[in-house]
Amino acid sequence: MQNKRARIRPSVSSRIKRVLGRLKDSTGTSMVETALITPLLLLTTFAVMDFACLFYVYLALENGVGQATRYGVTGNLVAGKTREESIMAAMKDATPTLTIGDGAFAFSHLPPGSNVWLGGAGGPNDVEKVTVNYQWTLLTPLVQPFFPGGQITLTVESAMKNEPRFN
Prior knowledge:
- With about 170 residues, the protein is of the alpha+beta class.
- The chain has one domain (about 50-165): Pantoate--beta-alanine Ligase, Chain: A,domain 2, CATH 3.30.1300.
- It has three helices and four strands.
- It has a four-stranded antiparallel β-sheet, with helices on one face.
- α2 packs antiparallel against α3.
- It starts with a helix and ends in a 6-residue tail after the last strand.
């Protein structure tokens, strides 16, 4: 009887020693850590780049709509274009890195003494508002599913009072 126990104990203890030895062995842990961390690191890096591009686009649009409104309040026209087309051209000139379609623009004005915005660029002494709705498509495929259609709609607007008389 003791002979059987003596045989069992060394085999169990040797198995335990082997398991403990394998647990202490660190071969391959770097590879596993890399496999777990790399996708998260790449997602974070590209998400930061995507949002940096988004902020650049937003700031470019803000600057452009401000420039377009400043141009519009003077009443100046580009030769052969309407007032709205001239304001759109000023906006596009101020944002050369973006492609903005004509349908992205909306013009409204507030006549003196009124509290209702009307369509169009308005005339002298009106408060003119230029609104631009721009669709930005995210670059990172892993970030796109978090936004409907993988796009973000940026809306920027600027309002200024038209000069009393146009040139």
